[in-house]
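Batch manifest line 478
LIGAND: iron/sulfur cluster
JOB: complex structure
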Amino acid sequence: MSTTEETFSQTIISDRDHLTSKSQQEEEPGSSLHDPSGSRPGLNPYSSAEASPGSSAESSPGSSSGTNAAQSEEIHRIILQPSLNPDFPAHPEGKMDPEKRDAGGFASVAARVDFSSIATVVSRRTDRDVKRALDRAASREQLSFYDYCALISPAADSYLEAMAVAARDLTLQRFGNVIQLFAPLYLSNECNSHCTYCGFSVGNQIRRKTLSMEELDREADALYEQGIRHVLLLTGEDYRATPVEYLEKAALQIRDRFPSISIEVYPLKTPDYARLRKAGVDGLAVYQETYDPVRYKEVHLQGMKKRLEFRLNCPDRAGQAGIRKIAIGALLGLSDPASEVYMLGLHGRYLMHNFWQTQLSVSLPRLRQATGVSDLPEVRDREFVRYLLALRLFLPDAVITLSTRESPEFRDRMAGLCITQMSAGSKTDPGGYRISSEQDRAAEQFSIDDHRSIGVMRNRLKELGKDPIFLDWSSVLK
Ligand code: SF4
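JOB STATUS: finished
ARTIFACT:
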């Protein structure tokens, strides 16, 4: 066993007992098919999500639900061989085709997949499937969705060491020892949406704040002085408090200090992204939160965020506008985690297929405590590690980001395996870096676990043999 393997097994994973191997499961119907061309089955779980056609068919083929074994097999085949081609390109303004109720773009790709059936398909993967996926990864073949399902399945739990070694080697080959560091800069915590998992939700009685340009300057200086050159600007969803004009002004205000500016704000239209790109924005982060269409409705109760397809196609619109870096993610804890990880992989492959000029980043934040949020479900470390390693093997060229939501120990260990980008020294309240005194601090979006400063983080990564950088070299070429 190599040093990496020993370190991995002895230190990352402390909850070995809670998963069981599923080595004797049956073969998945349609598993011999690996052609990724896909087809149009005429299913739309997003428009008829409550019916959950796949799940009833799976549990009781030929039951009174009207679905039958053939339909169930077709639903599973689509999950194992999804098409990456949209029905038509996403509308630049996010409009739906009124007759077909089809938004095109990734929303049309996602609509073909029955989310409620993914967990069944994943759970049927066997030891043999995992070994085959690892063999393919070792020979640098592109993994199929069938392989990906195997790697995120419980069957892969027995192969975590081998996955870690393969992911480490792939990361080293594609990214070297480099870890990109960036910092979030919250412009505002004003929000008109009600999302049940977020401290900024409109119903929460918290201190609200939107930075003035002078305040933004001070926050930007604080980060610049600590070496940060890639900054992520964030807001809530308040189109009046932080309109596109405000975002444009903010980017122009700080572009002299930050060669790389990303935004994580409310979904915009293609012309708005083009406008912000001219102002210096080169990256977009938009996390779907949950790809489960039923759960999406349950946790997004008010505001623009209720518009599922508008959000699903947000990365398409940024790609159309020529935004160079696109980050997507799923918030683990809202729905079945393996199904979310599957959909994130599908979304990633879709973007690489349709917007090959953009650099893809993926992330899997785990739900954290926030104002008004309690009783959070837990995605345990061992399971979480499996998902991150599977993502690396499935998306070898994607930047994988790990935020300060995770503990210092966990971040240190994952940096060597598959993570290539980290936030550092994060404050999740507007004005948190410099302008706020303790008494008048605005509310945080969520609590963080890694409180190390940017300098401490940089030194720690060096101790670990990593090469922390503050600027993605390619951003100077934009
Ligand atoms: S997740 Fe975003 S849109 Fe939802 S309440 Fe929080 S800031 Fe607002």
